[in-house]
Structure formats: C-alpha cells, structure tokens
C-alpha cells in the first residue's frame, strides 16, 4: 500500500514537473541519431490542411503536453484511484497489523482497535469494543509461543486459533481475524457483481425487478455452487414452501 501511494505521488510529480525533462531527453535522443525536431511553437493541425473547428492558438507543444502527455498520466492516476482509494489503502494498511510476520517485529494493537472502530463498528457491541483491547493485550503474550513463530499468513493464524482452541479464549481476536479474511472475498464478489450486471441486465431485460435481478445475479456469480444442486432437491424445496393444488411428479 505504501508502494501504491508513492506511485501516485510520483505520477503526479511527473505530470506537474516532468514535461521539460522529457523534452530535453527527446531532443538529446533525436540529435544523437539525426532526427529533425519540429518547432513546438508552430500551430498544430489535426490533419492535412486546416481543420474546420480547430482553434488557431493551439501549438504543437500544447498538443503533445496537454492532449497526450497529461492525458496518459491522468488515465493511469484515475485507474489507480479507482482501484486504490484512500479508504481502501487505510483499510488494508490497518489490516496488515494482523499479519503474523508483522507481529514478530511489533504488535500494533492501536491500529487493530482503530480498524474495528472505523470499518467494523456494527460487528461489535459497545462492551466488546472495550474488551477488545484487553484481549489483544493478553494475546500479545501468546505470540511469544514457539509454534506461533511458524505462522506466515493471516489464514495460518486463523487455522492455528481453531486448532489450538484458543478461539474460545480469545473470541474477539478470532472474530477480527475472520472479518479480515473475508475482505478479499467481499471485494472480489463486488467486482464480479458489476461485471455480471452488464450480462444479466441487458436491453431485453431492462425492466427486470430488483429482487429477481438479485436472484439472477446470485446464481450467475456463484454458478460453480449452483451447478452442484440437484434438480429434484430444488423441486422438493419449492414444493415444501407452501401447499399447492397440483402435485409435482
């Protein structure tokens, strides 16, 4: 996440300050292999001859800098901002406090508490919020155990808590770990939902109701699970929903 943030900053700096350095490098390259360099102060013509709706004050430098250089960087920045918003970066950065490899060096209890208060307040009652810090302070001694040092991922930590039955001693710690593990699944499901929306709700189904659309999307997104369902079991469940006049064969 720090790498993503620094990439954004460097791209923005390149956009604001990198044009002149780029021109110097281009001129040096062209001079070294005898390529003629056009006059950047000359008027830019979009095509051969004079464009009907083109402004006369647009120069070649304006075209290359604004229409190409800045536009390409803006596209890259927009892509990064869409994928990694400040909200997402903060969430993933705070979640890394539960990484066992990070715990070996330092145990960031404040970051974990901030993570819960900001992103998962509805999953914990008020009294559990107060108990959360105390449980993690006790858990700080558990991470000194030899078997804990062999854990490498948050998934390993979750399995270790179940295997050693320590999830019964630290239920709030276990709940936080499971919430973090579902983060990637939730994000992937959301992205798949938007992709499926364009397929399910097409021009022929533009008046589909929300409930029916939700059911269709669920079947399409989780089609691997839906394919395991037996047709007879679906018919039986449908029959058991209420009494019907006609019996299904």
TrEMBL record:
One of its GO terms (molecular function) is protein dimerization activity. Coiled coil: none annotated. Residues 146-224 form the HAT C-terminal dimerisation domain. InterPro entries: AtLOH3-like, HATC_C_dom, RNaseH-like_sf. Pfam families: Dimer_Tnp_hAT (PF05699). This is HAT C-terminal dimerisation domain-containing protein. It comes from Hibiscus trionum (Flower of an hour). The lineage of its organism: Eukaryota, Viridiplantae, Streptophyta, Embryophyta, Tracheophyta.
């Amino acid at each position: 996440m720090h790498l993503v943030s620094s990439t954004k900053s460097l791209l923005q700096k390149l956009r604001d300050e990198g044009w002149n350095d780029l021109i110097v490098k281009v001129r040096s390259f062209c001079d070294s292999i005898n390529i003629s360099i056009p006059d950047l102060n000359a008027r830019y013509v979009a095509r051969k001859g004079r464009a009907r709706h083109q402004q006369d004050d647009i120069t070649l430098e304006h075209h290359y800098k604004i229409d190409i250089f800045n536009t390409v960087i803006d596209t890259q920045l927009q892509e990064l901002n869409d994928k990694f918003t400040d909200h997402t970066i903060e969430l993933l950065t705070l979640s890394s406090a539960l990484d066992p490899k990070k715990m070996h060096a330092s145990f960031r209890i404040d970051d974990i508490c901030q993570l819960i208060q900001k992103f998962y307040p509805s999953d914990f009652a008020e009294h559990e919020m107060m108990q959360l810090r105390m449980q993690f302070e006790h858990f700080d001694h558990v991470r000194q155990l030899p078997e804990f040092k062999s854990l490498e991922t948050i998934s390993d930590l979750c399995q270790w808590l179940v295997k050693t039955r320590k999830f019964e001693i630290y239920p709030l710690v276990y709940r936080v770990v499971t919430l973090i593990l579902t983060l990637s699944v939730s994000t992937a499901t959301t992205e798949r939902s938007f992709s499926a929306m364009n397929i399910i709700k097409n021009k022929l189904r533009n008046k589909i109701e929300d409930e029916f659309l939700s059911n269709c999307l669920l079947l399409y997104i989780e089609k691997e699970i839906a394919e395991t369902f037996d047709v007879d079991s679906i018919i039986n469940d449908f029959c058991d929903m209420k009494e019907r006049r006609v019996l299904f064969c």
